[in-house]
Design brief:
Pfam families: DUF4399. By secondary structure, the protein is mainly beta. The protein has one helix spanning 2-20; strands at 31-36, 42-43, 49-56, 59-60, 70-77, 94-96, 103-106, 111-120, 136-140.
């Protein structure tokens, strides 16, 4: 009987934790965009180039800071948008800017690549509804 009670309690806690994922509201009319490079740009392969992030109608706050209508940037490189109700991965295709950065330097190997921005809340979870830029394509030569 105690084991069943424990399992019910654990399931309830897990459901409550999942219900909170992706529940940070985004501001109406928010616009997130990549200011540079432009879609279709050609960059030098294996050489750092600047990527700067644009955001309107929301503010930027570091990871761990929970303040209304704020979040921080994540740059997706050659990756689709991740699930809306889960923490954004952190790897070479999902770069986190949890200190509130609004630009970065990246380098890409030769070829065609996609770049897209996604805002994350204080816990690296996308807002509801998600705030993301248009996906752009750059070619590294």
């Amino acid at each position: 009987m105690q084991r069943r009670s424990f399992l019910v309690a654990a399931a309830s806690l897990l459901a409550a934790a999942r219900a909170g994922a992706g529940e940070t509201p985004s501001a109406p009319g928010t616009w997130l965009y990549i200011g540079y490079p432009q879609d279709g740009a050609v960059v030098t392969a294996n050489k750092p180039f600047r990527v700067w992030f644009g955001l309107r109608n929301m503010g930027v706050a570091p990871k761990g800071v929970k303040y209304p209508n704020t979040g921080h940037h994540h740059l997706l490189i050659d990756a689709p948008l991740p699930p809306e109700d889960q923490e954004i991965p952190s790897d070479r295709n999902h770069l986190h800017f949890g200190a509130g950065e609004t630009e970065t330097m990246i380098e890409l190997p030769p070829g065609r690549h996609t770049l897209q921005l996604l805002m994350g809340d204080d816990r690296h979870v996308p807002h509801k509804p998600p705030v993301h830029s248009k996906m752009i394509t750059v070619t590294a030569k």
